[in-house]
Write a structure and sequence with these properties.
single chain, disordered N terminus
Length: 140
Amino acid sequence: MKKHLFVNKGIIVVALILTAVMAYACSVESDIKPGSAQNKINPGSHGKVKVAILASPSFDVTSVCISTVRFGKLGRSEGASVESYSYLDVDNDGDLDLVCQFNVDETGIDYGDTSASIVGNTDLGESFNSEDMIQTVGNP
């Protein structure tokens, strides 16, 4: 922020020039239902679903602010919040990944949906997002 002081005929005018910093969302890798080749979700199951946010050299999963993480239907801003989480190496690369558990009923995922996303912020306020393919199962 820059501050300028102008004097004009005895009137002092203070002008503040604000510099906006636009935050952008960092794309990260995720895995819905880690350990399963098919990401099958039954929207009517009233069950839970696990989603892993994968660690990488450019993304430290321990910096994720858990209270900001949401998972669900692409384009649905609310999504489900994290019910529980742990750090496990789900992709066998030697790095601990963040595995979050969500209530399926809160995700907004409907029968026929083919993708879901996970979004959130780091402790420094940096946004991240990831999308993965899903297959819905069960009867509407």
